[in-house]
Amino acid sequence: MRRLxxxxxxxxxxxxxxxxxxxxxxxxxxxxxxxxxLQPPSPTHWFGTDHFGxxxxxxxxxxxxxxxxxxxxxxxxxxxxxxPLGLAAAARQGxxxxxxxxxxxxxxxxxPALLIAIMITAVFGPSATNAIIAIGIFNVPVFARxxxxxxxxxxTREFVMAARVAGKGSARISVEHILxxxxxxxxxxxxxxxxxxxxxxxxxxxxxxxxxxxxxSWGRMLAESQTMIGFAPWLALFPGLAxxxxxxxxxxxxxxLRDLIDPRTRRSRA
Length: 270
What we know:
It contains 10 helices and no strands. It is mainly α. The protein is elongated, with a radius of gyration of 22 Å.
């Protein structure tokens, strides 16, 4: 429970900053103030300013909005497509549909999210939308495999056999009986994939494949700071800390949820 509360508090802080950025930021992130360029952290600019005079704290707030939105939508794509595929594969275990879905998952796993993003951006150009699609495609087999594995163990349970005797079809059993019993696992995995999505978005933005200027992004802030790290280290420090703390908070949340859902895990760690 401590992990869940701590992780939720840390991650919630960045979610709150992202939501607040829609209404207010200390400074306009699109306004260039060359006279204030490369100022160190101070009461006026808490996290300093960049080489264009933009307030780093304000940029991190808006960057949180971008990272969280990309990761959240990518996880949504993975759940929305992967869970139905996993349920369908489990319901047709050993059949052609199961084999097709699993081999398709293997094919997607052969291409990391970064490579998928490069292929997509080569055709459609770099953007946050294409980053969402790339990370989402990589999430699909993750949720499909998890759902299938959990569902297979449930298809032999008595309540499923009773549903079959009652005349329910495979699709109805999957939705009414299997899905509710795998939801907890999906929530935990979703939290983990959310944190990985933020890392993936930062990596894609670092390479210039994510959100494009003038929209701030944590990964691109790191990329822009690498040539100035010797005399303006705050430009790399604060975006890097934002990524680390957000991912750490989400991972702690995932661990806490796993302990809450499965008490055996908590006892094994005690």
